[in-house]
Amino acid sequence: MTTMTSPLRRREFLRLAGAGAAALCGARTAQSAQVDNLRHGKPNFLIFYTDDQGWGDMGCYGASDFRTPNMDALAASGLRFTNWYSNAPVCSASRAALLTGRYPQRAGAPGIFGSGRAAPGMPPGEVTLAEVLKGAGYRTGLMGKWHLGGGPEFRPNQQGFDDFFGFHSGCIDNYSHIYYWGQGGKPARFPFHDLWRNDNEVWENGQFFTELVTREAVRFIGENAARPFFLYVAWNLPHYPTHPPARYWERVAHIKDPERRTQAATCAAIDDSLGDIMAELTRTGLLERTLVFFSSDNGPSAEQRNLLDDSGQFYHGGSAGPFRGHKFSLFEGGIRMPALMSWPGTLPKGKVIEDVGVTMDVFPTFVHLAGAEIPAGRVIDGKDVFPTVAHGAPSPHETIFWANGNQRAVRRGKWKLILNPTMDPGETAAEKVFLADLEKDPGEKTNLAEKKSELVMELRRLIERWETGVISKKKP
Of the candidates 57, 89, 86, which has an alpha carbon nearest to the alpha carbon of residue 259? Predict the structure, then answer.
């Protein structure tokens, strides 16, 4: 197989994003550049979405034990968010929010969908970003992980994607592309092959899945360079199985902690893929006409299966940086995400955005910039954050809510309340009610619930009203 993981391509992107990027911006203001850019036609949209990557798993967010040069270059070429959230600390719910602009509870995807060729998923009546942009003349593509249903009526081509290459389930082996997990349960589940091009099963035995994603993303960009496109690149790493090729392990051999070395090797594979895909935007002359967004679906996983052994121990190779908690938890470590946005010549470069944003904001932001229309009567919970990122307007959010299992949380301003918080998978935190002042205590080390009991009651009422609203069947 010919792969696109070429050092030459990656160096081309790094060069452009570094010193050469200054020439792209010149002396133009962000607003005048935006007008100039849009004269050339509708912007392209490219979403990079990693799987279980934490805040501390990127150089530009503080990782000092391994390098992510292409992620860091993307940050330098645009914006880096410090208060960006996932809508959920788990996979399917986060992806549903990204693609629908709605709280996952409203979108019918409150948790993790099962895996299987007939597995149910996000209700087909949900309207996705791909469907809206396709209706506005965009070519739409998804390369990578879906995890919003495996049954025929739930798959990507039925949710607005013209071009799909990847898998439908929660995870696959990176080389056989077979789903092996959950054997011996009730009902019985058996291994199944899960690699598809659109609705056709394909076989690429022995090929590293991340390289296949790179190849297909590069192909999609090249084939659609003359038309507006939306490309969603959804890597399956650093989610288990954490099994990249030997060259990535060799690259991070200096890391002594074996679990951290595992995380670093998987992140290095993602970083190479990102660099190759960004280099294709440069090669085709589309860099200034493409808005790129990068984030992770949820915080780092502590699941035992990351270890690739039978020890049953929790895995702590991923890093949530300064935050408490992991995947599955509504502490900041499970939901506060690394997030980048780049659009050379339109958005400022090297800027840090401290305003609050959330995954479901991507939908209305992209729809607005495409000049498309949200279906009449459709409830969209996300907000257009382009005024914030381009012109310095304050965050459009007053409050953001979360639910996962029996956990509930709300952030209003600097205050965050969590009910029934969890830590590692299956482990409930000692505190049943946790109130934090995130300005003074972003690591959620001090529980202020007893000292601020009236505020706790007020925020509890907000959660109750929100939950009633998003579960209501009366709202389309």
Answer: 57
Retrieve residue 77's tokens.
Answer: 């070429």
Same domain for 434 and 294:
no
The region that residue 379 occupies, defined by phi over 0 for left and psi between -120 and 50 for alpha, beta otherwise, is beta
CA distances to 49, 182, 241, 323, 473 from 88, in Å: 14, 23, 22, 16, 21
Cα separation, 128 vs 143, whole angstroms:
16
Q: Please tell me the distance from the alpha carbon of residue 170 to that of residue 174, in angstroms, as a whole number.
A: 12
CA distance 305 to 315: 8
> H/E element holding 167?
strand 163-167
415-419 and 178-179 beta bridge pairing: unpaired
Looking at the fold, whether 249 and 190 belong to one and the same domain comes out as: yes
More confident residue, 181 or 371: 371
Q: What is the spatial order of strands in the sheet that 290-296 belongs to? A: 200-201, 196-197, 163-167, 139-145, 229-238, 44-51, 290-296, 339-342, 79-81, 351-353
Are 335 and 459 part of one and the same domain? Answer: no
Indicate the length of the chain as a whole number: 476
- Structural domain harbouring 410: 400-471
Enumerate the β-bridge partners of residue 47.
Answer: 232, 293
Any domain includes 476: no
Strand pairing of 139-145 and 163-167? parallel
Q: Which positions are catalytic?
A: 91, 147
CATH number of the domain that 297 lies in?
3.40.720.10
Q: Are residues 459 and 386 in the same domain?
A: no
Q: pLDDT tens across 10-30, in order?
A: 655 665 555 444 433 433 333
Indicate whether 429 and 378 sit together in one domain. no
Query: Does any domain span residue 2?
Result: no
Rg (CA), the chain: 21
pLDDT in tens, 364-395: 999 999 999 988 899 999 999 999 999 999 99
Q: Are 74 and 294 in contact (CB under 8 A)?
A: yes
pTM of the model: 0.92
User: Is residue 112 within 8 Å of 104, Cβ to Cβ?
Assistant: no
